[in-house]
Amino acid sequence: MEKLRVIGCMSGTSLDGLDLCAVQFSKEEDNYQFEILAAETIAYPDALRNDLDQAFHLKKEDLKGLDEDYGSYIGLSIQSFIEKHELQGKIDLIGSHGHTIFHDPANGITVQIGDGQHLADHTQITVINDFRIKDVELGGQGAPLVPIGDQLLFGNYESCLNLGGIANISFEYEGNRIAFDVGPANMPLNQIMKEVFDLEYDKGGDKARSGKLHEDLLSEFNQLDFYKKDPPKSLGREWVEEEFFSIVNKYPNVQKEDLLRTIVEHEVEVIAQTFDRYNLPNCLVTGGGAYNTFFMDRLKAKCKTEIIIPKPQLIEFKEALIFSFLAYLNINNQINTLASVTGASKDSIGGIKFQPN
């Protein structure tokens, strides 16, 4: 497989911004090699962040308009990124996750916006996007998609945990790579911080650290049906709004610091239980939640698993890096979606290609 330079772009459920990661890939015998050339998070303008946050409620025709506008925004952002990092003429491919609006695989629905044709036209670079649709059509969850990268790029770790809006994990089990969403992570915490404290997130987990544990609330969280399901399983914003916050709303008088504290405790408990259930000796932890020192302290206190936190570039850009890798695999006609992870009827090559006009 030839050496290619690919930009991966990722917008997570936490709405931090657009993560861009330019990576050079090559393959020597059975080993994939990568080098990060540049990486950056482009913060969303307030209006766009609000549009993405509320897109779940849009009518079909309005969502189509946002899909096209957001594709153009990604394209213009990548153009600026290329110029800033002096990558003109050096990028062969773009792998774009887009931004998830709906994810309901049980009903065959998954929607990520960020129109691929608009993106290709603005950058004049071939684009691979819509990575989830084919797997859902094959009966899979369409998620998580990152585990193929965990397996082929980060296989020296026993497990990989991403703490974004949702916490998801991947590891080898009985000869196959498996992965699943463990539970919520930053999504409910950030939502409470924004609504109550007018802050984007709980820096270092300081607000949660100052709170007290609410045992009844914790017990209700722990009894949610999702945790009784075996993998493959995945979560979306719908579940957080309908299931998780329906419990929160039953306790309107709980101090918000206590609520944050209890949510953190719940989240680390379900992660620790997963470590224990599968006897995982170590775990590479990435995503914005890795910076929440209170969260990480509680996780380490709850489990025997060695927690490995890498350098900031990998914490922040591992998912964008892996979406560039999914595009690299796609363009080389290699499997990039694992049925053992998603529950689909077979492995597949996910992604739709768009050529610039």
Description:
- It is a single chain.
- It contains 13 helices and 12 strands.
- It has helices spanning 46-54, 60-84, 116-123, 133-137, 147-153, 186-197, 206-210, 215-222, 237-248, 256-277, 293-302, 312-331, 339-342, and strands spanning 4-11, 18-28, 31-42, 93-104, 109-113, 127-129, 159-163, 166-173, 176-184, 282-286, 306-308, 352-354.
- Helix 8 crosses helix 10 (256-277) and helix 10 packs across helix 11.
- The strands form 2 sheets. Strands 1, 2, 3, 4, 5, 6 and 12 form a 7-stranded mixed beta sheet that branches. A 5-stranded mixed beta sheet has the order 9-8-7-10-11.
- It is α/β, with parallel strands linked by helices.
- The longest helix is centred in the N-terminal third of the chain and has 25 residues, at 60-84.
- The protein folds into 2 domains: 4-138 and 349-354, Nucleotidyltransferase, domain 5 (2-Layer Sandwich); 148-313, Nucleotidyltransferase, domain 5.
What attributes does this structure have?
single chain, 357 residues, alpha/beta, Nucleotidyltransferase, domain 5, 2 domains, 7-stranded mixed β-sheet, 5-stranded mixed β-sheet, 13 helices, 12 strands
List the helices and strands and how they pair.
Elements: E1 4-11, E2 18-28, E3 31-42, H1 46-54, H2 60-84, E4 93-104, E5 109-113, H3 116-123, E6 127-129, H4 133-137, H5 147-153, E7 159-163, E8 166-173, E9 176-184, H6 186-197, H7 206-210, H8 215-222, H9 237-248, H10 256-277, E10 282-286, H11 293-302, E11 306-308, H12 312-331, H13 339-342, E12 352-354
Parallel strand pairs: 1-4, 4-6, 7-10, 10-11
Antiparallel strand pairs: 1-2, 2-3, 4-5, 6-12, 7-8, 8-9
Helix pairs in contact: 2-3, 6-10, 8-10, 10-11
